[in-house]
């Protein structure tokens, strides 16, 4: 089991990326503007959230996303630098809540509240495989 909640609350991590042509909404096929695809902003937030608590998880334990409440405030052009932070703000049993913010310079580009649940890797993968087999049988 994870460390006590008080050791997780306040854990912070960061991720950064420079926007390349292949990172744009038009390149990925999710829009027609040459700005950073919103899905990659979400990826940066998830990466920071995972990194913030990674050292606090037991061996064989990880977290999976369970929900995200997200607001986009603007785009980032090719060559821009996305800087993202995530801070663990709440622990409720195995569920962790993170406040995430993404900036280009001083400009807030996106903000989110992400919830992730701590799981044991092998059990989670076994359960997922069993569910996939069951889905293919009933399809």
UniProtKB/TrEMBL annotation:
The Fluoroacetyl-CoA-specific thioesterase-like domain extends over: 19-120
In terms of InterPro entries, this protein maps to: FlK (IPR025540), FlK-like_dom (IPR054485), HotDog_dom_sf (IPR029069)
**A Pfam short name:** FlK
Coiled-coil ranges (or none): none
Q: What is this protein called?
A: Unannotated protein
Source species of the chain: freshwater metagenome
